[in-house]
User: What shape does this take?
Amino acid sequence: MRFEGRGVLVTGGGSGIGRSTCLRVAAEGARVAVVDLRAERAQETAQEIAASGGRAIALTADVSKSASVDNMAASAIDAFGPIDTLVNNAGIAAGDDILTFDESTWDLNLSVVLKSVFLVSRALLPAMIEAGSGTIVNVSSVNGLTGIGEEAYSAAKAGMINLTQNMAIKYGPRGVRVNVVCPGTVRTPIWDGVVADKPQIFDELTRWYPLGRVGEPEDIAAAILFLASSDASWITGQTLTVDGGLTAGNPRLLEDVDIDAGFPDAANQKEGL
Ligand code: NAP
Assistant: This one.
């Protein structure tokens, strides 16, 4: 029960990785504020927690809008008490080519993915600083680490990593830890549009993953809970990549290297022996 007595707020808690994080952290004793754009989604997660004997509140907010975020944060603290753990998880992915997507697509990605981290952190940090303790986990992506498409989304995700580092060094001395996770492909509703066009997408992507499967929301939730827990009490400003080995290297490159034939140098050395 690593989260007994703690108040945890998760944005995008009505679906996918956020929902799984809410359920797991509630099972470990936390009071959970489930925040989502759609009220019914937040309520579903909160009801699931309550049905298992946990404590949760459902809140609606658009995390890209400061007034909405400030209202939501005030309601969370009023109704639920102090929030010591924030998971900035809400996200969207739109647009795949800077020559074809429009300015509003760029703005939407930057607002929902990156500006939201600024807005929600700004709303909850003062209470953490006053308490002298708190922790924030940002959910970025492998797209923030390297070039794999979805340019606006990826640029915003890369920005989250730098923002995490700056927040960590600035607020570490005030007792607040800030870290970021970078998931690879995870089977969640964010993929629904792609799956509708290409039902086999996860099977196709699996060949890129050394561990032989794409991720499940629980894989990421486990990493988020670790970073948010006291198990990570001396970890801040760090990027934890949770991607089944995707960014460790390229397994398809190995297919083009004929190991059995050996490298010329190795063959010569054997002859010399
Ligand atoms: P998801 O199932 O679609 O969950 C995202 C949640 O965020 C949804 O409930 C969505 O609400 C909510 N949301 C979207 N815009 C919002 C806004 N403006 N204000 C408040 N809530 C908003 O997707 P997921 O895969 O779990 O994504 C969670 C995080 O993981 C995202 O930041 C995503 O970029 C990141 N990630 C996902 C993957 C992956 O392969 N799944 C990989 C790397 C990183 P609605 O559905 O009602 O719009």
About this structure: The chain has one domain: 7-268.
